[in-house]
Amino acid sequence: MKAVCWYGKYDVRVENVPDPKILNPRDAIIRVTSTAICGSDLHLYDGVIPTMEKGDILGHEFMGEVVEVGSGVKNLKVGDRVVVPFTIACGRCFFCNRKLWSLCDNSNPNASMAAAAYGHSGSALFGYSHMFGGYAGGQAQYVRVPYADVGPFKVPDGLTDDQVLFLSDILPTGYMAAENCDIQPGDTVAVWGCGPVGQFAIQSAWWFGAERVIAIDHVPRRLAMARDYGKAEILNFDEVDIAERLIDMTGGLGPDRCIDAVGMEAHGHSADAIYDRVKQAMMLTTDRIHVLRQAIYCCRKGGTVSVPGVYGGVIEKMPFGSSFGKGLKLAMGQTHVHRYMQPLLEKIRGNGHPGFDPTYIITHRCR
Amino acid sequence: MRSLPGSQVDTAGSVHFKPLGKDRGTVVKVSLKYDPPGGKVGAAIAWLFGKGVEQQLDDDLRRFKSVMETGESPTIQGQSRGH
User: Fold this and answer.
1) pTM across the whole model
2) Is A133 in Cβ contact with B77 (below 8 Å)?
């Protein structure tokens, strides 16, 4: 089959590779009908995520048709159309039982490597380096999906791939970011980053009852999308001082809830080498938490900073004094995708009302 | 338990299972005593050897937990990749 493979910094290639096989009884093989590129894929492309190996297949946002099931999978059959969460969850551990799917104890075969870096390992991810399991990803014609009785989400007829593909990652991610804010009536929510996650965080902020949503970026097309589809007030950080404008726009209070949908590569990034020799190999990042810092600084006292943006390593100059002094709540983490797929499908379907159409997010297509 | 006579490394130890109650599972505690190979030279680098044994034990216990909880051990051996 053909697959998008990583070979180094700025070096990805479409290669002919072996078709995937069932390796464990709870596996299934999916024929991919649609797949997307995530903002976090850029960290892989930019060569700043450690523990990648040449030939690794990329991609963690995908959907398609079941073509084979392992002997342990009873709830899926060949021909089923499914969207697959990017986080791999076993469905049976302490964390999966509490619906903390992205913190699964069992899915990462390299859990001891991640635990050396982080204290404990979260779940494995598709196509996102060996520290997170090294699983072959979904920018390919076929994918092997482990714990296929837990992850793959069956999609009803009558919805196109475009409408449901984003249930795999970015729509739940934006949604969970807004949910983590604990938005109260009257709240102003500021969203840094108008990429796909930011766009869906903006939409989700309205769903959770925000009074105002302010979107921050510097790419004109992204700001226009946030304004036209997201109905957000927009700020271009190349043109205005964000801190000043946010204070001004909120009568001196600051936004009640701040969402960092940018993550570790706010202006590029420095990597932490986290493989086996963790304590020696960790490098301190410098000045890459610009957005996180600004969100903390700008947030009103007693507010919430919600971080769906991906961070990998150790940071410097974290304004923890500000966080403490203002009594902020910080909420963060990889998305518990499995939790949100059904409720978000309902929003897309509409159930008698006009459904939510996420397809505005699509700007480019490749075949 | 102890290792069989003629093993490369003599080991002895125990495994204890203790339920945690309140839906929190079972703790598995492994206690392992071993004589590192290589006599005096072996003893000098025994701490390094010990790190290896601890890592091996850690990996084995993770695999055991996976098999007990999920019925299988997570793997990517044999998966598709580019060359």
Assistant:
1) 0.91
2) no
